[in-house]
Amino acid sequence: MIRSDDGCVVYLNGKEILRHNLPQGQITADTRALKRSDGLEERLYQYFKVDADQLVSGANVIAIEVHQVDPRSSDLFLDLALRGYPDDDSLRPKLREQARQATVDYHSKHFVGPKIKIRDGYVDGGRGMKLDETGQAFSRRELIIVDRQRDAALKQHLDFAHSEELKALEPLHRATRLAKYVDRNMSLDKNNRWSTPAVVLLTREYANEGVLLGDVTRLCGAGVCRHRALLFKLLADEAGLDVALVRGNYGDASRVGGHAWNELYLPDGRRFIIDTMQRRIVPLGSDGSQASSRYLTVKNKPWYQNAEPVEAMKPKKIAN
Asked: Which ranges carry the EDR1/CTR1/ARMC3-like peptidase-like domain (predicted)?
């Protein structure tokens, strides 16, 4: 995968293997990029597949040239990452047996309970995802894959979940700290968290293709509720917290939209909504009823209409 300001062409052992944001035909030192890369677009990686047959035994040489749309431009950059896969099927989203219960529960019930862990091979393609009899997944949007072995970014997140810093905290503070971590790592920047254009681009470019969970921010700069809630659940599992993954809608009579969030179950019986997209931690009970009433099922029924009372506590915002 690659991103550049503005365009680039890549050669492997002297032969062109890809070009990005450059015209067709012969490339010379005077060739200009087709358009300027700035704002959101320059944050996004582009995926390209290269056949391994183009490699040779021994040393292989990659050469890259970067072209600007305007020779007077004051900045230029290139960012390239290479990954090798054993065959064409290695990133094809296919449910693994060890992750079947979590995947099927979320797909059919829109809920993964706190005692069910997110295992490698978990696949989520949104509400419209289809699973055939072999476990092959299909969707009109990107298919998020959990794979701890291949996902370098996820490994870094797991290091934090296993850290002594996190283990030293009591469960509610541990969950709060973890929610801040997910929010920070799934945001474009402090002042630009609402990344709808980026995720629309991700959905369009990678519809029905597998995307590693840790690559979401590489590909579109940020993650929305479905990415955040899954990452929080996975890391909470690793951090020794009892957390559920929930999908439904959010809103009121005037406006409602699809949403995903988490529930935290504490040893003393208290429960909290953990919403890293809304930056909220909401106690489930009488004091949190007004806030929690906005969390709906996929059929727009109140999700928490029978929530058990808990100790009074105002909804908390997750600080930066």
From this structure: 131-278
What confidence tens digit (pLDDT) does each residue in 23-58 have?
999 989 889 988 887 665 666 667 677 888 888 999
Contacts of 307 (CB under 8 A, 6+ apart): 271, 284, 285, 288, 289, 292
Burial of 3 per CB tally in 10 Å (0-12, 13-18, 19+): buried
Highest mean pLDDT among 75-84, 169-178, 195-204, 268-277: 169-178
**Would you place residue 170 in the very low, low, confident or very high pLDDT band (cuts 50, 70, 90)?**
very high
Q: Which residues pair with 210 in a beta bridge?
A: 143
Mention every residue, 6+ apart, whose C-beta is less than 8 A from residue 201: 40, 44, 220
Give CA separation, 242 vs 10, 112, 233, in Å.
47, 11, 9
Pairing of strands 210-212, 143-145: parallel
Four-CA torsion 210, 211, 212, 215, nearest 10 degrees: 160
* pLDDT number for residue 309: 37
**Residue 275 and residue 262: Cα distance in Å, rounded?**
6
